[in-house]
Every structure is written in C-alpha cells, then in structure tokens.
C-alpha cells in the first residue's frame, strides 16, 4: 500500500481533459488508499512560466534552466509548501506509467522522508535494511515519489527557491547522492530517501501517445530528416536510402550469417550521422523498453519521426522482407512497428542481456562503427552479427528461437536503430519485460 493522504499530479496545461481520463485509469492500477483525494495541478505554460517563477519567488540558477524544468519546479514547489496539511503525499508528473506490482517490498516502517516510486538511476545504490529497497544513488527524474511532512518541510526550506535547478537533480542533492559538491552545497538539510531496486512506476515521454503531439515544438537539428512530404520525398530517398536497396537486387545484397537472419544495406552514412546527432540533440533518453537504467532509448514517436521512418521501411524494406521470408497474402501488409534509437555507452550501459524480443520480426540498424566490442550475439548459433559499415541492417525472427543480446562495448558509444514488428495494436512490451 502506498500510504499517503493525497495524490498530486503535475501536468502541462494542454489537453488536460484528455489527460485526466488517462491519469484516472493509471491511478487505478496503484495500491492507493480508497477514496484518496487527487489534485491535478496544472503547470505553467511556456508563456506563463516566468511570471509564475516570480510569483513564487523562485530564482533559477545562473545559466538558467529549460522552461519545462522551470515549470515543473513551480509545480513541485507549490506542493512542498503544503507540509502542514498532510502527513505524506504522492507526487506524480504527467508521463507516469505504473509498470509493476511488487509493492510488497514497499516497507514504510524503515525511516524515510522521501521514497522514489520511479526514477532513472545513474549512481551506485546502497542496499538498505528493507529487502528490495535501496538508499538511492544519483538519480534523475522527479516523476513519481512519495514524501512525508518532514521531507516536504525540508524541501521547502532548503534554499531551493534561490537555486532552482531541475527537480530531479535537486532531489539527488538533497539525499546526498549528487556527484557535484557545488550543487550539494547550495542546499540546506539532507533527506532520508529510499527507492525500490526496481521501479514501481516508469516514465514515458508523452502521455497522449500520438506521433505528432509528442514532439510538438521540437526544433530539429537536421530539418532535412523531417522533410518528406510531396516532392521532398525524392530528395529524401536520394540522400538517405542506400541506392543498392532502391535497385531491389535483394539476393545480391543480402548476407545470411545465421539461417533466417539477414543483413543488408539500408541507409546511407549521411542518414546515420544525422540521426545520431538528432537523437543527441533531442536528448530525452528514456527506458521505454522496460530494461534497466540508465535510460538508453528514444522512441521515434517522441522525436516525431515514426511516420516517416515507417513509410520508408514500407516502401524499401518490406519488399525485401516479403522476398526473403517468402511472405504471401495481404495480412503481412498490416505489420505494425515500434522504432527506437538506442545508445550504449562503454562503462555505463554497455550491453543488453540475452532475451527474446516478443515481436514477429526485429530489425537492428548499425548507425556507427567507431566503438569497440558490441554487436548482436546469438548464443544458440554461436554467432556475433556485427555489420562493419554504418547503415547496414540485420533482421531476425523475434518470437522464439532467436535468443540474443548486445555484446558489451568496451570503448566509445554504439548507436543503433531498432524496430519491432508485430500484428495488431498490441506491442510486444505491453506486458512489461520480454
Ligand atoms: O544492440 C543490439 O545489437 C541488440 C538490440 C536488441 O536486441 C533489442 O533492442 O532488442
Ligand atoms: Fe532484442
């Protein structure tokens, strides 16, 4: 049971009605006390945020912070002021996504002032007395935490108002896990914090789940990637799609390193370079695929790139797919996909453990080769699939029989685009881990 007496949901003011229904549905899956009051607290919009900061007496640190961070800061700050009215509250930001039901580990008889129900964990956690719980190391994200009156009072009197930084960073400084001593030194008080080893609640980038809205307002670094309508399409294909694939000599360009696993050229090097830079520019790395932290993926939806990417694959990749697997009939044309850009970093998040994808088919596009280690390993076949040129794709059956994982990289960063193809609208991760 999440023992709190009120739930606050901080939400950006657009589409609030639609979000309300979604929040309600998601709250139902949390073990909360019956009839608990829920307050949906609208965050200031981009045009209101400076005035709200002034109204609350909040002063961003030198150099400033992004408006969304400032807006969230206003919302959290407002909640913390209510420490006299509540014993403990649950604070959620829009995008909270209940994912797990291992709440039996949530033991509130341990001393605590704040408990993360979800976070992006970066630093080393310290095991706590309570099984399944840790004293959290450096963490990011302030999208799901419970806090008691003592904790709220500490946050409200910590001098955060004079040093507004992103709330997630601030919380880490407050539980003494921030790597920067300068940042830690800005704030009075320390919090006793706990977190489950495995998140109860995950975060998604956008709660409305449509392709367009998620990336609303996003200014691309490489606008050319997004120019695909009408006449621009031809230029797009020339610039970014591998000419060998366009010529459709599938049997000439495909290798089959493992039975039913194919590799072939799909994109140009320019595409690979630009999409990597675009992802880094976008910067909102998530843990959407439900794997461990720190966050490593960006769903192409959230970048506003899903539709273009799907359309290109339909035109240039699907014919190869039908040919190689000898697919017949109309049903295959209804294959849906989810696409992600994934980043591995040596020494941080360098590998992906063995798994089955749960998809009908999966595709991995190599975007760079300037790293050491890496590649997709299929233990049953004792084969490492590791194209040596950017833009090459590999495809493998995703459901069963092709257990695989990403070999650790030992130096540099490895970027891939990964796609999971499935039938219907039920994506393979709907049920969690795969
Ligand atoms: O990084 C790789 O080579 C494998 C990625 C993968 O298996 C996945 O994303 O499901
Ligand atoms: Fe996989």
From TrEMBL:
Indicate whether Membrane appears among the record's keywords: no
Metal-binding found in the keyword field: yes
Read off the SMART domains from this record.
Answer: P4Hc
Q: Where is the Fe2OG dioxygenase domain?
A: 335-424
Q: Which cofactor does the UniProt annotation name? A: L-ascorbate
Which keywords fit this entry according to its UniProt record? Dioxygenase, Iron, Metal-binding, Oxidoreductase, Vitamin C
- Domain of life (superkingdom): Bacteria
Which Pfam families is this protein grouped with? OGFOD2-like
For this UniProt entry, the molecular function terms from Gene Ontology, in alphabetical order, are: dioxygenase activity; iron ion binding; L-ascorbic acid binding; oxidoreductase activity, acting on paired donors, with incorporation or reduction of molecular oxygen
Name the chain's protein: Fe2OG dioxygenase domain-containing protein
Organism in which the protein naturally occurs? Chryseosolibacter histidini
